[in-house]
Specification:
Chain A: This is Glutaredoxin. The complex is a heterodimer of chains A (106) and B (91). Chain A is an alpha+beta fold. Chain A contains five helices and four strands; from the N terminus they run H-E-H-E-H-E-E-H-H. Chain B has a single domain, classed as GMP Synthetase, Chain A, domain 3 (2-Layer Sandwich), CATH 3.30.300. Classes of the chains: A alpha+beta (106), B alpha+beta (91).
């Protein structure tokens, strides 16, 4: 992890909102199947979330991978903590853990 | 099995000593996708892994273990990798 400006910016993003998604495209126009799944899951849960389109921001796209030490997009953060990518979000949604985590009852 | 799928299998075998390992080449269903224009390139994979190495590990650390084993391929030929990771008592 470096102290470059992009990591500062990411830190600000993931702490400003409770639920933050870094994705390819937007929730309305996702540009990747994996990003689409996570956006749909979050919409289904119904809690407000903030999303950032990494395709519009190459610095963010590379920066987020370094920030979380995670090689792929999408990436979900809840209350500043990295939760995972598409597989993890899907598994946690199916088991009910994600709903609990987002509701803050965990 | 394609060359890349075989390589993924070999690397995961040596890194995680899995009890069960299934490498599914899903590339054909992504034909026309930006990472695989003609649908004929090995690019999209799903792996099912059961390994003792996952016991007591969080989902994130399990996936990190897999990503680490395939770090080189994830930088290049692998466009997308999804995975199911289970410890033996969860299988």
């Amino acid at each position: 992890m470096s102290d470059s400006p992009v990591s500062e910016r990411i830190k600000e993003y993931v702490t400003r909102d409770d639920v933050v998604l870094f994705m390819k495209g937007t929730p309305i126009f996702p540009q990747c199947g994996f990003s689409s799944v996570v956006a749909q899951v979050l919409q289904h849960i119904g809690k407000d979330f903030e999303s950032y389109n990494v395709l519009e921001d190459p610095e963010l796209r590379e920066g987020i991978k370094e920030y979380s030490d995670w090689p792929t997009i999408p990436q979900l953060y809840v209350r500043g903590e990295f939760v995972g990518g598409c597989d993890i979000v899907r598994e946690m949604f199916e088991s009910g853990e994600l709903q609990q985590l987002i509701a803050g009852t965990e | 099995m394609g060359k890349l799928a075989a390589l993924i299998e070999t690397k995961l075998q040596s890194a995680l000593a899995p009890i069960t390992l299934e490498v599914i080449d899903d590339s054909a269903s992504h034909a026309g996708h930006v990472g695989n224009p003609g649908g004929d390139r090995e690019s999209h994979f799903h792996v099912n892994i059961v390994s003792e190495a996952f016991t007591g590990q969080s989902r994130v650390s399990r996936q990190r273990m897999v990503n680490k084993a395939l770090a080189e391929e994830l930088k290049g030929p692998i466009h997308a990798l999804s995975m199911t990771t289970r410890a033996p008592d969860e299988a």
